[in-house]
């Protein structure tokens, strides 16, 4: 499981034949990602330093137009402009939001209680079909929330356009 840039690295290892490193990786699940953040900046400096939240108390972090930090029953909002201050510079060179080279891509895309999942390869289809048949996943068809698909397209296009900016 990894971000689009990590999945890209795996595919490059496979392309050049480095079986020692790529061979043990049977499946790749890519996360949908706009950018990653420096831990020291976002967590230590901002969340702990500025907001006074102990990182051990954070139960969940999510981005939905703003960064949401959940601690128990409390949700603290960080404006995205403030969070982006701690984004990794290398993320500005990446043009892949949805882990297009993964066997399966997954991300929230505004869904509550579900993860938007895109099967990209036969290997990914076999895995997801097997898990679904076993009853380990509760699934809903995409038609019930086409806004998630529209958001995927919008964020993917935005990421492609930002490359190199």
Describe this structure in words.
This protein has 165 residues and is an alpha+beta fold. The strands form two sheets. It has a three-stranded mixed sheet. A three-stranded antiparallel sheet has the order 2-3-4. The longest helix is centred in the C-terminal third of the chain and has 17 residues. It is globular. The relative contact order is 0.16.
Q: How is this fold's topology laid out?
A:
Blueprint: H1 4-15, H2 19-22, E1 29-31, H3 39-50, E2 60-63, E3 67-71, E4 74-78, H4 80-84, E5 104-107, E6 116-119, H5 122-134, H6 146-162
Parallel strand pairs: 1-5
Antiparallel strand pairs: 2-3, 3-4, 5-6
What is the count of structural domains?
2
Order of helices and strands: HHEHEEEHEEHH
Query: What fraction, in percent, of the residue positions are helical?
Result: 25-40%
Rounded mean pLDDT is 90
Number of helices, counting only DSSP H or I runs of 4 residues or more: 6
Number of strands: 6
Strand order of the largest sheet: 1-5-6
Biggest sheet descriptor:
3 strands, mixed
* Inertia-based shape: globular
Gyration radius, in Å: 17 Å
Strand content: 15-25%
Distance between the termini: 27 Å
Which consecutive residue ranges, at least 5 long each, have pLDDT under 50? none
Class inferred from helices and paired strands: alpha+beta
């Amino acid at each position: 499981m990894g971000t689009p840039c990590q999945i890209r690295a795996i595919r490059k290892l496979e392309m050049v034949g480095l079986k020692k490193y790529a061979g043990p990786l049977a499946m790749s699940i890519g996360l949908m990602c706009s950018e990653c953040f420096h831990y020291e900046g976002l967590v230590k400096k901002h969340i702990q330093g500025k907001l006074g939240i102990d990182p051990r108390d954070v139960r969940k972090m999510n981005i939905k137009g703003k960064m949401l930090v959940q601690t128990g029953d409390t949700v603290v909002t960080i404006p995205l402009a403030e969070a982006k201050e701690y984004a990794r510079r290398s993320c500005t060179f990446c043009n892949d939001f949805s882990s297009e080279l993964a066997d399966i891509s997954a991300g929230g895309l505004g869904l509550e209680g579900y993860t938007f999942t895109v099967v990209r390869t036969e290997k990914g289809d076999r895995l997801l079909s097997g898990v679904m048949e076993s009853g380990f996943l509760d699934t809903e068809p995409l038609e019930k929330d086409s806004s998630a698909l529209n958001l995927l397209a919008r964020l993917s296009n935005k990421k492609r356009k930002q490359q190199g900016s």
